[in-house]
């Protein structure tokens, strides 16, 4: 196995045992990144020389007996919303031309302290305000969207171009691209990972978290990121549940909520089938499956938009007036339209969020976790604008990707996506595991137990996106089983897509 | 890239009807492009005429989505705070949903 093919946990074990040097690992991952970057465009920029220097430093420290932990000497990518001192934070936007970060973000500083090797910054949908990351292509099929907004991070992990990556999630932006590229993504509890130095899309919905090849890897990265930071107003105390109360590989006694409503509505049959099979596997591992009803589903999109739209517009208030022409058209129109939303609508969304959090608290008092699809359809073809569901409804691709993610952003509860196989065309499917506030231990425990049952856990995307995924031939009649793609084309003016 | 796709034309997943719906009130009216221009000027964001149609349409669509929240009777429910953990206590009494 070549070093770039190693998971974080395996690479860390090899580095710790001095069977693999950080320099060898970094060179291998850099080589892989260069080999796939032309097709995938996951990176805003690779910083090879700096990465080599960091790897050499790590190697010297480890040789001297100063091993810092599992991230020491391991290459990563940072979503380019995350400040690194002396480097630009482009947000994948011309608006940020000439920007140089004055200081490290908290997460960048913590990763540096852990000895991780920054390989480069990864692409985001501009300012995280979108679900596709159009610059970047899906690691399994370059004719499919990467997902977003942490598309570069997910694609880099899935293709072996980094060993792990960091993303942000305001309405699914870690979980959506992770699911669409067949990797693990964790949106931690709101405030658990400090956001200081991370460009905001929507302060009250933003989260920072890891994208990795396995659940074990996500747990290793999370441990390096958490900890009190007084500069984040949403800071929370240390996790209450650092040691999950369940035995390894055994979910006996765990109550797993399976939604009767919302999460399996308007979901493609191939996605539903893969997720339900994974849920059955949790039962086989000893979990008790409990039917649950999801509260206040009618108001999810209204709350998400009522919070995100005005907060995003407020963040961009100055540059929207100074250099509006530098924004991509899709982002500019949303920022401008956000100026016209009433304060009363924002307050109403915040009050509805209070109700939604309380209702979810009652739900999560009855079960330990809720499991559900991460996204209702696999990666859409580039350029596809919308889908028509079996009930006749039409939904934009972006709206559909955010639909199943938004509840965890609104309520702030932790949510993990873990690969559960492939659907139509060999494209990855993700299952979401949603837990109690600060219940990352239980969420990771469920994901890890499931993952241990799969022979393909931690796999890379086939050929790093060199061609269509295995068997990725969409049958002419595929629409009869899944959502029907609607061709791209001129769209009526009275439309908008849900973002982030 | 213009705003690209229609939102769902079907209702969102059904939730129970409010037990005590808010008093009937007129639906918020859509903005015309001229009104959008005036509102934008009031916000300190002059919009060129070439921006008006797209911005107005987007603003009206957003308004149509968030207007759903007017169905809720909030009683004395306050806006959410920044702290998640504080608000996830299931013992806290609820308003009518």
What is the count of β-strands of chain A?
A: 14
Proportion of residues in β-strands of chain A: 5-15%
Unreliable runs of chain A, pLDDT <50, ≥5 residues?
A: 240-245, 467-500
Q: What is the architecture of chain A at the second tier of CATH?
A: Alpha-Beta Complex
Please explain how this structure is put together.
The complex is a heterodimer of chains A (500) and B (97). Chain A is of the alpha/beta class. Chain A has a single domain (3-468), classed as Amidase signature (AS) enzymes (Alpha-Beta Complex). Chain A is 35% helix and 14% strand. Chain A has helices spanning 8-16, 22-40, 48-63, 106-113, 151-159, 175-180, 215-225, 269-284, 300-315, 317-322, 329-338, 343-366, 397-403, 406-411, 440-451, and strands at residues 43-46, 75-79, 117-122, 164-169, 184-187, 207-212, 255-259, 288-292, 369-373, 386-388, 394-396, 415-422, 428-435, 484-486. Chain A has an eleven-stranded mixed β-sheet with strand order 1-3-2-4-6-5-12-13-9-7-8, sandwiched between helices. Chain A has a three-stranded antiparallel β-sheet with strand order 11-10-14. Chain B has 97 residues and is mainly α. Chain B has a domain at 33-88. Mean pLDDT of chain B is 73; it is low at 1-21 and 90-97.
């Amino acid at each position: 196995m070549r070093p770039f093919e190693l998971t974080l946990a395996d690479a860390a074990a090899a580095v710790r045992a001095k069977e693999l040097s950080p320099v060898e690992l970094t060179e291998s991952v850099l080589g892989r990144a260069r080999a796939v970057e032309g097709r995938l465009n996951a990176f805003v920029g690779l910083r090879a020389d700096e990465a080599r220097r960091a790897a050499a430093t790590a190697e010297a420290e480890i040789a001297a007996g100063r091993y810092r932990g599992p991230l020491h000497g391991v290459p990563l990518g940072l979503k380019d919303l995350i400040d690194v001192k002396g480097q630009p934070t482009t947000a994948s936007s011309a608006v940020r031309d000439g920007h140089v970060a004055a200081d490290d973000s908290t997460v960048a500083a913590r990763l540096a302290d852990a000895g991780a090797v920054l390989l480069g910054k990864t692409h985001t949908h501009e300012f995280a305000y979108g679900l596709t990351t159009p610059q970047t292509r899906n690691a399994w099929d370059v004719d499919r969207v990467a997902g977003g907004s942490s598309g570069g991070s997910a694609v880099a992990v899935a293709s072996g171009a980094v060993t792990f990556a960091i993303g942000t999630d305001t309405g699914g932006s870690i979980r959506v691209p992770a699911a669409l590229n067949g990797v693990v993504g964790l949106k931690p509890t709101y405030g658990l990972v400090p956001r200081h130095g991370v460009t905001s899309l929507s302060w009250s919905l933003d989260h920072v978290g890891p994208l990795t090849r396995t659940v074990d890897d996500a747990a290793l990265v999370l441990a390096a990121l958490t900890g009190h930071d007084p500069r984040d107003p949403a800071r929370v105390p240390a996790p209450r549940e650092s040691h999950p109360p369940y035995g390894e590989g055994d979910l006996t006694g765990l109550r797993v909520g399976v939604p009767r409503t919302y999460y399996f509505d308007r979901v493609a049959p191939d996605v539903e089938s893969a997720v339900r099979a994974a849920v059955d596997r949790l039962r086989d591992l000893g979990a008790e499956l409990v039917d649950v009803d999801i509260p206040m589903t009618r108001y999810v999109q209204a709350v998400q938009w009522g919070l995100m739209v005005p907060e995003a517009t407020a963040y961009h208030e100055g540059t929207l007036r100074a250099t509006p022409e530098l924004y991509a058209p899709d982002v500019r129109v949303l920022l401008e339209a956000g100026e016209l939303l009433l304060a009363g609508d924002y307050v109403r969304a915040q009050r509805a969020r209070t109700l939604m959090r309380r209702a979810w608290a009652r739900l999560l008092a009855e079960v330990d976790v809720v499991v559900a699809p991460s996204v209702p359809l696999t990666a859409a073809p580039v350029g596809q604008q919308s889908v028509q569901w079996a009930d006749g409804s039409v939904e934009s691709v972006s709206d559909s990707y955010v639909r199943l993610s938004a509840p965890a952003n609104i309520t702030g509860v932790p949510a993990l996506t873990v690969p559960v196989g492939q659907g139509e065309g060999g494209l990855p499917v993700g299952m979401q595991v949603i837990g109690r506030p600060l219940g990352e231990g239980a969420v990771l425990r469920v994901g890890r137990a499931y993952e241990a049952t799969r022979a393909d856990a931690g796999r890379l995307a086939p050929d790093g996106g060199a061609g269509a995924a295995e068997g990725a031939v969409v049958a002419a009649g595929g629409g009869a089983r899944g959502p029907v793609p609607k061709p791209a084309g001129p769209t009526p003016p009275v439309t908008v897509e849900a973002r982030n | 890239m213009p705003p690209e796709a229609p939102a769902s034309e079907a209702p969102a997943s059904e939730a129970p009807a409010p037990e005590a719906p808010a008093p009937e009130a007129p639906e918020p009216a859509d903005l015309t492009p001229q009104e959008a221009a005036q509102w934008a000027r009031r916000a300190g964001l002059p919009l060129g005429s070439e921006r008006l149609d797209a911005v107005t349409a987007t603003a009206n669509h957003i308004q149509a989505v968030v207007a759903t929240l007017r169905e809720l009777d909030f009683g004395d429910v306050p806006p959410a705070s920044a702290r998640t953990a504080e608000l996830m206590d299931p013992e806290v009494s609820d308003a009518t949903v």
